[in-house]
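Structure request: NAD-capped RNA hydrolase NudC, Pseudomonas frederiksbergensis.
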Amino acid sequence: MTSRWTTAVIDTDLPGGWAVARSPEGFLFDDNGALFPREWLKRQDLSILAEHGIGHLDGEPVYLLELKAHSEVSGCNWKGLRAFMLDGDHTVYKVLGYAAQVGTWAREHRFCGNCGLRMTQVPRERAMYCEPCDLRFYPRISPSMIVLITRGDEVLLARSPRFVTGVYSTLAGFAEPGESAEDCLVREVREEVQIEVRNIQYLGSQCWPFPHSMMLGFHAEYAGGEIVPQADEIEDAQWFNIHALPPLPASRSIARYLIDVYVARRLGHAEPVLPG
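Returned structure:
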């Protein structure tokens, strides 16, 4: 049976529930996973920066303990969010991904960006409040586009120096103020590989918690130009035949979904479903 996860603002004065602990080293985990009985976790020697109620897992409340630094807890270790994405339970990854976004926001909004005074959490609302300025600060979502460029049975894939060795993926970039998603797509493709595209088709979106992206996924057809990789950003970019693809991104990522959908369409196979 699949676990059910829903986000919610939960009062931290309530007792009980589950909790996850996040530090700059990642999330605390043991042989049973990354969720711990909340009261037990709070009895450990943890340097808690903030606590937030973040949702319900199978009806049970879940809280985030955002830590100043990681601590040694007997029988436990620390692991980054990407590792949970690759080898963990998908529902738990969604819990941790949301916790990471809330934790990043909580860490970065302890003080008002206008006057510098300490802010307070707003009860029953995901907001930090500065009373002197009468300002509320909410978690930030940054829109970005990600696109698979196609040319018949070929797809354009590239790799960044930050990627796992050998892995190629789609092109992506953040939208700038005043840009539409389509404007962003055309600009980023020109900047990263200096080619032109046409027939832009939107396929879906995915919340990407590294740390707070909303990835808008597209297919686009090649319209002209020669590949010239952007220095310091693109290590390599090539056309690959769908029958001879290089190592690809993780199956739960929207990048992999864009590739898999196009391959399925070319081969007449059933299209995959974008992971929620």
